[in-house]
Structure formats: C-alpha cells, structure tokens
Amino acid sequence: MKIHPFLIEMVQIAVLLFAAPLFAGWVKMVKCWSQGRTAPSLFQPVRDIRKLLSKDVVLAENASWIFRFTPYLVFGVTVLAGGIIPIISTDLPLAATADVIALVALFAIARFFTALAGMDIGTAFGGMGSSREMTIASLAEPAMLMAIFAVSLASKSTSLSQMVLVVSQGYSILQPSLAFALLAFILIALAETGRVPVDNPATHLELTMIHEAMVLEYSGRHLALIEWAKMMKLFLFVVLGISAFFPWGIAVNDDLAGILAAPAYLVMKLGLAAVGLVLIETGLAKMRIFRVTEFLGSAFLFATLGMLSFFILE
Amino acid sequence: MNFSPGSILSASFLLLLFLVLSAPFLRAKQRLLIAIGFSITAVASLLAAFAGFWTLAGGVTYQLVLPLGLPDLPFHIRLDSLAGFFLVVIGLLAFFVSIYSIGYVKGFLGQRPVTSLVVFYALFIAGMLLVVLSDDAFLFLVSWEIMAASTYFLVLFEDERPENRRAAFLYLVVAHVGAIAILLSFGIMAGLATGFSGFEGYTFDAMRKTVLPSGWAAAAFLLAFFGFSAKAGVIPLHAWLPEAHPVAPSNVSALMSGVMLKTAIYGIVRVVFDIIGSFPWWWGSLVLVFGLLSAVIGILFAVMQQDLKKLLAYSSVKNIGIILISIGLAMIFSSYQLKPLAALALLAGLYHALNHAMYKGLLFMGAGAVIHATHERNMENLGGLIRFLPWTSVLFLIGCISISSLPPFNGFVSEWLTFQAFLLSPSLNTPILKLLIPLGAALLALSSALAAAAFVKAFGITFLGHRRGPDQGRVHEVNWPMRIGMTMAAISCLMLGVLPTYVIKWMDPIAEKLTGATIAHSASGFGWMWLTPIAHERASYSAPVAFAGILVVVIVTYVLLHTRPGAIRRAPLWDCGFEKITDRMQYTAASFSMPLRRIFGFLFAVHEEVKQAPPGRHPAFPESFTYQLRVRDRFWGWLYKPVIDASFWVSRMVGRLQQGRIQVYLIYSFVTIIVLLLFV
After folding, report:
1. B242 touching chain A per CB within 8 A
2. CB-based contact B549 A83, cutoff 8 Å
3. Is a pLDDT exceeding 90 seen at residue B46?
4. pLDDT of A64-88, one tens digit each?
C-alpha cells in the first residue's frame, strides 16, 4: 500500500515536534543515571514547554521587534529544516526545497537572528553570547560543509534524500572517507548544538556560557519556542548524522511496511545516539572558549582527511 | 527614430551629457539642481538598464563605429549579451542610488556647493556605461579614465579633511598603475594582431581574430589581471579601497562599491573569455587563488572594523573575491573543455556580481542614512537606532541578511551555485586540482560564515542596544527619496533571491556565448520553483518554497500562540542587583570581534594598548582606563611601503640631475646629441 508523500511529510513534522522534547528528556535521563543522580521524568521537557507557553511574557523596556520576532523565526526555520531531513522516509515533498548546503544556511538564519536578539537589549551578557556564538559558528560552518562534502563526493549529490539512498544501498561506513567525515561531524554537532566540551546546556550563571547568554532575557512563550527549537535542533543534528552515516531503516519507497518500520529503527538509533552523547558529555570537561578553535580545527582536519582519502583510496 | 536598445542608450547618454553641460548654469539654485540633476541621472540609468535588459533578453548584438576619436582611429561600440548584463547591473543600481541621492545630497545644502558632485556623478555613471560598451582599446581606456578621474573628484568632495585627500591620492595612484597594466596588455594583443606594424589592431574584433602565442597570451593575461585587480581591490592590491570608499559621500560609495568594482570584473571576463578565448588551466587557478585570498582576508578585515563604512568597504573586497572564485573555476573548467560546468561557474559569478551590486548598494545607502541622521560613522558611538530609524533599520537588516548569504535572499543563491560548481571539481582529471579545489570550498564557507559574524556586528552594534556614544540630540528618520531608493534595492534583493530560475534563464545567452554551453534547460527543468543547476538528483534548491515555508510556520505559530490573550509586561532590565546599568556596559564593536581577533590576529598587525589613569596607582584601583586598538594591514608594510620608499629613492636620485645651472643642462643636451648621433 502506498502512502501519499504529503501525509508522510505531516507525520514527519509531527514526529519532529513531539519526539524532540522526548529525546531531550531521554538524554537528560541517561545523563543523570550515568552520574548516579535521580532522573527527572522522560516527559519533563514537554511539561516545561507547556508551562512556559501558558506564562505571561516579561519584556525589557527597550526590546525592539527583533527580540519579539526572533523566537517565531527560529522555531519556523527549525521546523522547516525538519521537513527537509529524511527522518522516516526519503520521499518527502519538501526534500527538494533545500540540499545540505541550504540546510546549513537555514540553521544559520536561526543563529543570525538569535545573535541579534542577544544584542537587542543592550546587556553585556547578550552581546557576549552573540559574539561567541558567531565566532564558534564561523569556525564550525566550514568544517561542517567539509564533512558534508566528503559524504557528497561518495553519493555525487548534496541532496539529502539522494545521500541516504546511496549510503543505504551498500556504501559502507567502513569506507575511510565516511569514517573520517563521521568523526568530524560528531565534533561539529557537539559545537553546533551547544553540548559539553564547547558550551554547557545546563548552566545559566557561568561566564563560559554561549547560547544561554543570548537567550537570557527571554520569558514565557518566547522562551518556550526558543527552548523547543533548541531541542529540535539537537534532535535534527542527531537525525542528520543518522541519515548521512547510518541510514538503514529509513523508508526509501512509500509502502506502508517501510514507513511503519522506520520509527522503530529511529527510536533504537536515537536511544543509542543519546548514550553516546552522554558518554562524551560526562567524560569531557567544558573547554575554555579559545580551546574551541583547536577542537573545531581538528574537526576540519578530519573532514579534509576524509576528502583526501576519498580521492586516494576510493 | 526607430526604437531599439541602441537608440535608448543614446538617449541615456544625451541626457547625461545635457546634465553635465547644464549643471553649472543652475549653480545659483542648489536645491533645484539636486532635484533636476539626480532625476535626470535616474532616468538615464533606468534607460541604460532597460536597454541592457532588452539586449540580453533579445539575444542580439549591436555594433557601431562612431565618427569620434583620433583621425583614422574611430571609436567602436558594441552592445552584446555580456555588455547588456553589465548595463543592467550598473543602470539598475545607479537608478536606485540616484533616487536616494535626491534626498541624501540635500544634507550638504548650506555646507558646500554640490554642483561638482552632480557633474562628476553624472560623468561617473556615463564613464561606467561607456567602459562596458566600448569595443576597442582606445575608447575602453578613455572611458576607464573618465570613470577613474570622476571618482577621484567625488572622493575628494569633502576636501577639507586630510584623510579624504590622502585617500583620493592613493586611489588615483593605484588606479593609474592598474590602467598602465591594462594599456600594456591591450598593447600586446593589438600589436600581435597586426604583427606590430600598424594601428588597426586596436579594436577588440581584431584582437579576437588573432590567436596569440602562449607566452604572449600569458603576458597579456597577467597584465590585464593585475590591472583589473587593482581596480577591483583584489588582495593585495586592495589598500586604496577601504580608504577611498568610506570617505566619499555615501551615494557615491554605494556606486563605487556596488558597480564600479564590477567594471573590473567585466574587464576580466571580457579579456579572458571573449578576447583571448582559449587559455591553459593555470590562469584559472591563479584567479581562483587570489579570489580565495580576497574572500577570506577581506572579510576578516571587515570583522575587525569599527567604522561602519570601512566594514562595508572591506566586505566588498570579500565579495569581489567570491566573484573571482567563480570566474576562476569557470576558467579551469573551460580549459578542460567541461563546458556546462564552466557555464554554471561563470553564471554563478555574474549572478553574484548582480547580487552584490544590489545589497552593497543598499547597505551603503543605509550607512549613508545613518550618517545623515546621526553624523556619526564610528560604530562605537552608535546603537539603539532601530527605535529612531524604523525604515532604515529594516532595510539595512535586509541588506545584512542578503550579504550574509542567508536564504531566501539573493546572496545565498549565488553562493550556493558557487558551492555546486566547487563540488563538480571531481570531474576534472587532474589529481592535484581534484584535491585542492574542495579546500577552496572550505575557505569559501569560512568567508561566508565570517560574513555573518561581521554583519551581526554591523547591524547589532549600530541599530540595537542603547546609544553608545554621546547623545547629540534627536535622531530623525530619513526623508522619502532616500527611503524609496533603499526600498527598491531591498525589493530587488528579495526578488533576485526568490526567483533565481528566471534570472538564470535570462542570463543564459552570456554563458552560451562565452563558454559554449547553457544551463537554463537543466537549471529550471522542474519548473520555475526549483533550481536544479545540473540535475535534480545532484542538488536542488527552491527559494519560493523555503520563503513560503518559513513564513507559513511563523504565522501559524504566531496565531496559535495568540489565541489566548497573553499579557506582555514591560519591565526594566534586570541589573543583577547592581545599582545601575549604564550604556557603556554594553558590548562594543571592538569587544564583539575580540574572539575572532584573537584567533585570526596573526594575519594582522594588531596593536592593543591599555592605559590607566592616574598612572602610578595600584592596578586594582584605577580611576579610569583608556583602551586603544589598532588593527593594521600587514600588506601595507610588505608590499606598499617598499614600493613607496623605492619610488621616493628613485625620484631623489633623478632629482640630482637638476642642478639649476644652465651650463649643466647644456652639457646634458650635448651628451644626448652625441649619443644619438653615435647609435641612431
């Protein structure tokens, strides 16, 4: 039985909206277990978002329209990105809207406006967060594109659906170029989603914080959208890694069995990815900001090595 | 009179000529002169743009020999697809800027007479249009000089400031060094066209027909590339650009950065693809390497700037770099006979040239509006303008988004096409190029990510937060002509971003003529919404869907969240329990770029100095600090200073010949005659 692609698209966006908070909750749970603490419920992030959505907004006196517009834009861009990445199926009507390069640019829009919102109020914290975020982004973006290019050399395409198709049809992760690209991608994903060695998602009062510094002044529904978008971004980066490197199980045609099996595979892979993420976060300490250069530099180096090995070995 | 692109263009030139001749008679009525003068340039530019659009859309070539010029050396004019495209670039931006100028130049009323500004502005536009139209070396260089000289006077417009005089002089010197190189390049090609025996080789047609020996061709290319690079501000020949562009009046800066630099791009494309025609791969690599260098170093410089217009000027260096990257790739692909790929890369570069004209023009007009409103160029004294300049801030933001190459605006489309061209490099069969070209893609990515940082800084520091410097009275939104000019530029940024398939289809004849392949068929093979430059499995991008998608989600979220009447409470800023937050506690332009300065500082001569007052006090209890930061260009010390020193040394040596005594000069004449008699 065939399912219409538009239906799949709707299902996928629904999965994104609701699985992202659950995934964030799951990461937190595993983290607590690994550190010997009692974990909050899996649904805690959902409850947080619901609570924030029902609260009133407190705005700074001089906040301009940029500050109020940013949460909606960040949320919208992230949802659109979720419609492009193949999460459960490659046959998405939106998939042709943007290839990987455009996807990176979509995340860049969200970052651009978040950084502006950080500077809008005129506090030192916001400006600091914006400055650091843009610095890290400008180092992470080239590395990210290099990692993607290494994969796209193998699939001869920058379209995500096409990459999934080629990699799932026999292209092995044991290929040196993909292995290097995966390594680079993991490092970049940690930086882009603000996880531990680069940024600490759990702190609000450290001088080292980056993303949290930009959104410090948000409250109510604005904060809910920003937090939700942040969870979706983490989810999407993990899914992006899965579809570029471990795409087995993503439905490649529209039959019902494939579509039904895909979420099961997805849950399994997400569960494992969270464990990996937690191991990295628990095992490493937060870096000084100027060490991030070396961190991302090595990501860039891995991606370059991946590309070189493609030309030399494959 | 029949109605054709040629006659429209002549009307445009006649209007400009009429303005130049009649402006001095309106000297006494300055206000009227501004209104009439800039209206005429607006109409003339629009006519030129229309003629160019028609030529390119109609796919026809017009040639004309003018009965002007030296005896037996008449001027040749040619309007083909490439010239048509650049006419559109120049004419469209000049149209927007002319409308803007009607309001902007009023700011000089009562300060200084603006007659010279109007006259040289019109000459400047006419010069640029002529450069693009000329079909012989003679007319090309004459119009090149008209353009250079008129901009010299425009840069010098506010000549009481020493930095303007210095910048104008530096500009003039570099422009002429470049012009000499271009002249020599044409000299080689014209000479070889006739075997160094006559003057008939000076037309581009004669040069086209000649097949140059490879050594001479390389010499001609290198000279032309050097000359045009000096005009385009390619690193390391960029030093004049960040000096000259910021000090000119902002409408002139918009044209200089937006379109004058593009005439150099036009020159490179014309000489390489049209006149020389066939070339080895290393020419392309050379252009690619200098393009990458300009893109990365240019944008790093831009991030470091404190002066809004200097930031914009340096970012022009970066954008010229991106255009050269595409052109270099097109040359490499073309030299390996990979015609469709060359067509893609070339169109990406030209598309970027058009895009850059629109958003850089918009940004310079926006910077002009900020200066018009606040009389301040230094970002450290700006801030919070979004509340006083609602129009300008939105339009400037559109420019910032476009230049940071974020979808759905135009900067992204051309950069995306350039990336696609990069990713096609595996089709080359030279291993070394295969390996090295993808690294170029990474540098391009670095430069575009840094551009986002630079323009978050430009917008954030200028328009957001609180005013950082001393508040000098009320700040007004700018007048209507300025707003209209900027709005039109902003709309074209959006249109060029959302409808790329139409633009590519329109530009396709250029690719067909210069590279022998077209991409429009594959690029819009899936309808107007989907841009698929090679094949849809390879890559696709749909700006309309991305734009609509973001818009729909934003609106739906907004509506859903506003079904319940949620209250928004305005409260003072949380000050962490301190008594008072002052405006000086905000992040500044210098502090925003500090992390990047620290990471990439080794490329620049960064000099930081912290002084505490009073000096003898314990460092823990200072009364006040002064912080000084200077970021200087290492190229100045490496490249320019030795040349300057050497030329001074040579002129001192030559100066020794001048003794001031008649006897010595008679001996000189005598010796010269003897030598001539001996050898000739």
Report:
1. no
2. yes
3. yes
4. 999 999 999 999 999 999 988 888 8
Annotated domain spans of chain B: 1-197+248-258, 279-483+510-563+585-592, 593-632, 636-679
Question: Across the interface, do A109 and B407 touch by the CB < 8 Å criterion?
Answer: yes
Pair B362, B486: CB distance under 8 Å: yes
Q: Which string of DSSP letters, residue by residue, matches B288-299?
A: HHHHHHHHHHHH
Task: Note which residues in 397-426 of chain B have CB less than 8 A from chain A.
Answer: 397, 401, 404-407, 412, 416, 419-420, 423, 426
CB contact, 8 Å: B460 with chain A? yes
**Which of B530, B561, B593 comes nearest A96 by C-beta?**
B530
Q: What is the mean pLDDT of chain B?
A: 89
Q: What is the CA radius of gyration of chain A?
A: 19
B601 at interface of A, judged by CB pairs closer than 8 A: no
CB B91 within 8 A of CB B488: no
Contact between chains at B452 and A137 (C-beta distance less than 8 A): yes
Q: Are strands A57-60 and B568-571 parallel, antiparallel or unpaired?
A: parallel
DSSP string of A63-85? --HHHHHHHHHHHHHHHHHHHHS
User: Could you tell me if the ipTM is greater than 0.90?
Assistant: yes
What is the CA B194 to chain-centroid distance, rounded? 36
B64 membership: H or E segment, kind and range: strand B62-70
Helix, strand or coil, per DSSP, at residue B66: strand
Tokens of B25: 């008679």
Token pair listed for B87: 């006419």
Q: CA-to-CA distance for A86 and A92, rounded, in angstroms?
A: 7
Whole-angstrom Cα distance, residue A209 to residue A216?
10
